[in-house]
């Protein structure tokens, strides 16, 4: 398999593991990018973007990054908070009055960012194509009764997160979520990252290769098993009541790519993910572009909820909008995937295994994207091998599946 790009000698093991992903772990097409002190030290890509034609994965290839998008949406909220335009401790109704319906008047913005809002799914059935109609979904969420008392537990808002946080951003900024992201983040930083992909970039998208659950050795996580066997459960509502968005192949339609969906709709590559996190690894600014004040970084990196996730059914940990490291390796094999990185790091995985994060202590940013999905919800062996190689190169040590700085 031909691997292209550059990698400094210190991080040669990252390249080795990237090559092993293709040779031993079933990788089809992928990219990985790392910056240290703001400078690229790993920028690699390779494999096949389109197996049906043999089109190679190129430097310009982009791909659906699924829930990595949540970090981009969360960053938009933190930008407004850093400027004093959004109070993360204020009630949502301060910015979105109709959200008060059905006892949600005490829900705080921080509850929404930390998956405590109690709206991981809608109970009234959505029509086909609903996720491409922003007003329809946000109106339904405003009217929905929470599935638990907001602030009393956390449960992954896998598909609704972007509409909830994005509507707050829209009401504060006067811009749609995609417009705000382009104006304040992707445009100034020159990132290949879109929430609402322009028509002319569609040929550059490597479509998702989904998991085939009928293949030997494929173990579906509890979230999917619950959805398949308990039709009234929160997992079932989340995965089935989305206007058909989770129907196989629909997420790679032109309608899906052009829509602004801040939980799961982002299109990017490893360079775009790592580039978004680069300022956050350097105190909030890079190359004259300041996203947030340095004092905002702890709000983005400090864990606020931890424990059993009410939706996913396994432990999870979140800061305000970002995932934190979690070791689930002790769980049964179908739920054993976690996110093993230092406690200082914060970021987000995407369904099937993509990942972006910043580590302010190590002053690194990281991005990994691919087209062939793994069966789990978090980081599988392909992405984790790259993270592990990265921290070994930095001189970190590993204990109980978590990385620690040696000094």
Protein described:
With 407 residues, this protein is α+β, with helices and mostly antiparallel strands. The chain has one domain: DD-peptidase/beta-lactamase superfamily (Beta-lactamase), CATH 3.40.710. It contains 12 helices and 17 strands. It has helices at 12-24, 68-82, 109-113, 134-143, 161-173, 177-189, 222-229, 234-240, 254-258, 270-277, 297-301, 381-393; strands at residues 3-7, 29-36, 39-50, 55-56, 62-64, 193-194, 205-206, 267-268, 285-286, 289-290, 305-308, 315-318, 346-350, 354-359, 364-370, 397-399, 402-404. The relative contact order is 0.18.
Q: Over the alpha carbons, how many angstroms does the gyration radius reach?
A: 20 Å
Percent strand: 15-25%
Classified by CATH, the class is Alpha Beta
Question: How many β-strand runs?
Answer: 17
Instruction: Return the average pLDDT rounded to an integer.
Output: 96
Report how far the terminal alpha carbons are from each other. Answer: 38 Å
Count of discrete domains: 1
Structural class: alpha+beta
State the major sheet.
Answer: 7 strands, antiparallel
Order of helices and strands: EHEEEEHHHHHEEHHHEHEEHEEEEEHEE
- CATH homologous superfamily identity: DD-peptidase/beta-lactamase superfamily
CATH third-tier fold name: Beta-lactamase
User: What is the 3D shape?
Assistant: globular
Would you identify the regions where 5 or more consecutive residues have pLDDT less than 50? none
Number of separate helices:
12
What is the name of the CATH architecture? Answer: 3-Layer(aba) Sandwich
In percent, how helical is the residue content? 25-40%
